[in-house]
């Protein structure tokens, strides 16, 4: 499946006292990357869309103040009402962290709903 790349630079506000990107910022940056990934996807009227159901992160190498990197996102598996995605934080061809995420598709009643085919097609 195709990937989506989201560039980012580590700012002072993203770091701890030692100049290393704070672990919680990875979740926020991954969310921004997913938002950009879904920017051109139109959800049917009344549907809420995707919500995070589960996520996990493995950290391999710290990102530091002033460093440029990108988040590479792609779908690993598509289910009926959810999908599994992976988001890699990459700097100079080095994987610094990997986030695995399960996102559920929900309708206006806040219950899981079958993902429309055209939505997955625009993401993958």
Report the CATH topology name: Thiol Ester Dehydrase, Chain A
Distance linking N and C termini: 5 Å
CATH homology superfamily name: Hotdog Thioesterase
CATH top level? Alpha Beta
**Regarding quaternary structure, how should these chains be classified?**
single chain
Give the neighbour order of strands across the main sheet.
1-3-4-5-2
Shape: elongated
Gross CATH architecture? Roll
Which class of secondary structure composition applies to the elements?
Answer: alpha+beta
Instruction: Tell me the number of strands.
Output: 5
Mean pLDDT: 93
Rg result? 15 Å
List the domain count as a whole number: 1
Report strand %. 35-45%
How many separate helices?
2
User: How are helices and strands ordered from N to C?
Assistant: EHEEEEH
Helical fraction? 10-25%
Ranges with pLDDT <50 over ≥5 residues?
none
Largest sheet: 5 strands, antiparallel
How would you characterize this protein structure?
The chain contains 2 helices and 5 strands. It is elongated. The longest helix has 15 residues, at 23-37. Strand 4 and strand 5 (94-106) form a beta hairpin. The chain is an alpha+beta fold. The model has no long low-confidence stretch (mean pLDDT 93).
Please outline the helices and strands.
Elements: E1 4-9, H1 23-37, E2 49-59, E3 68-78, E4 82-91, E5 94-106, H2 117-123
Antiparallel strand pairs: 1-3, 2-5, 3-4, 4-5
Which structural traits does this protein have?
single chain, 41% strand, 2 helices, elongated, Thiol Ester Dehydrase, Chain A, 124 residues, 5 strands, alpha+beta
